[in-house]
C-alpha cells in the first residue's frame, strides 16, 4: 500500500500514461528497467514513497527519505536512438514547469545544465536517464526524477533546498507528480520524437539559470572556467573561455561563480 495519494494528470491518462505506486523500492529506475526486460509497452510511471538504494548520475547515492518525490518514467521507442539524449532536456523543461506551479511566485526555479532544477540557486531535484536495447532492435529509456519536497540532504558538497525550505505555496508530492505527468506528456508531444528539438532548446534556454555568468565545469578531473553562453543545437553546453573562444561540452559537473550565488 502507498502512504500518499498519487495519480497521473487527466491529459496524461488520456494519452495512455499509466502509474504504479509503491511504499518502498530499492530504486524506481531499477524497477522501471526490470519492466523493460519483462516486455512492458512503455508510458509507465513508477513512483515510490521511499527508496533504499536511490542513485543519481555517475553512480552517486540519492538520499531518499519519506516525504520527497521519487518517480521514473519508462518510454519504449520514444525516438530514433541518435535523439534519445534529448529526452533529458524535455524532462528538465517539464520538471521546471511543474515545480513553478507548486512553488508559486516566491522562489526562483531555474534549470542548471543539463537538467538539474535549482531553487534560489540551491539544488532542488535531479534527473537520471538510462536505457536498454530491445530484442526487436528498438530502444527503451527510463527517466528518473527525484525532487526534494519536504527535506533536502544536509551533507551534500553543494547547496540544497526543498520546496518546503523555499517557502513554496505547496510541497505536496502527489500534486507535484500529477503536474509533472501532465507537463512531461505535453513536452514529449512538442518534441515529436526528436523532430522538434529546436522548440525544446528554446524552452530550455527560457528557463535556464546562469546565462551570461561565470561557470566552472569539471570534466574527467579537468576544471574549465568561462562564461555560460547557452546550449547548441545538440544540447551541448557553450562555454566562452578567456580570449573569446567557445568550447562545446558534452558532459561535466557545472558550478556557477559562488560570488554570484
TrEMBL record:
It comes from the Bacteria. Residues 18-192 form the BPL/LPL catalytic domain. Keywords: ATP-binding, Biotin, Ligase, Nucleotide-binding. It catalyses: biotin + L-lysyl-[protein] + ATP = N(6)-biotinyl-L-lysyl-[protein] + AMP + diphosphate + H(+). InterPro entries: aa-tRNA-synth_II/BPL/LPL, Biotin_CoA_COase_ligase, BPL_C, BPL_LPL_catalytic, Transcriptional_repressor_C. Its EC number is 6.3.4.15. GO terms for molecular function: biotin--[biotin carboxyl-carrier protein] ligase activity. It holds the Pfam family BPL_LplA_LipB. CDD domains: BPL. PANTHER family: BIOTIN PROTEIN LIGASE, BIOTIN--PROTEIN LIGASE. This is biotin--[biotin carboxyl-carrier protein] ligase. It comes from Candidatus Rhodoblastus alkanivorans. The lineage of its organism: Bacteria, Pseudomonadati, Pseudomonadota, Alphaproteobacteria, Hyphomicrobiales.
Amino acid at each position: 500500500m502507498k502512504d500518499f495519494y498519487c495519480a497521473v494528470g487527466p491529459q496524461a491518462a488520456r494519452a495512455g500514461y499509466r502509474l504504479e505506486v509503491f511504499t518502498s523500492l530499492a530504486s524506481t529506475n531499477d524497477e522501471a528497467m526490470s519492466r523493460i526486460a519483462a516486455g512492458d509497452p512503455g508510458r509507465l510511471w513508477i513512483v515510490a514513497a521511499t527508496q533504499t538504494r536511490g542513485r543519481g548520475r555517475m553512480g552517486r547515492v540519492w538520499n531518499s527519505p519519506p516525504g520527497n518525490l521519487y518517480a521514473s518514467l519508462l518510454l519504449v521507442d520514444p525516438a530514433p536512438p541518435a535523439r534519445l539524449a534529448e529526452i533529458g532536456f524535455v524532462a528538465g523543461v517539464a520538471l521546471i514547469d511543474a515545480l513553478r506551479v507548486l512553488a508559486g511566485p516566491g522562489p526562483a526555479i531555474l534549470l542548471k545544465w543539463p537538467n538539474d532544477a535549482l531553487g534560489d540557486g540551491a539544488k532542488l531535484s535531479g534527473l537520471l536517464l538510462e536505457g536498454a536495447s530491445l530484442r526487436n532492435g528498438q530502444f527503451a529509456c527510463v527517466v528518473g526524477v527525484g525532487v526534494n519536497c519536504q527535506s533536502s540532504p544536509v551533507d551534500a558538497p553543494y547547496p540544497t533546498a526543498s520546496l518546503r525550505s523555499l517557502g513554496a505555496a505547496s510541497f505536496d508530492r502527489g500534486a507535484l507528480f500529477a503536474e509533472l505527468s501532465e507537463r512531461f506528456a505535453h513536452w514529449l508531444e512538442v518534441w515529436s520524437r526528436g523532430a522538434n528539438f529546436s522548440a525544446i532548446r528554446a524552452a530550455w534556454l527560457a528557463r535556464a539559470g546562469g546565462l551570461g555568468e561565470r561557470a566552472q565545469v569539471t570534466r574527467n578531473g579537468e576544471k574549465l572556467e568561462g562564461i555560460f553562453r547557452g546550449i547548441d543545437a545538440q544540447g551541448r553546453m557553450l562555454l566562452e573561455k578567456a580570449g573569446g573562444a567557445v568550447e562545446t561540452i558534452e558532459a561535466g559537473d557545472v558550478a556557477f561563480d559562488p560570488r554570484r550565488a
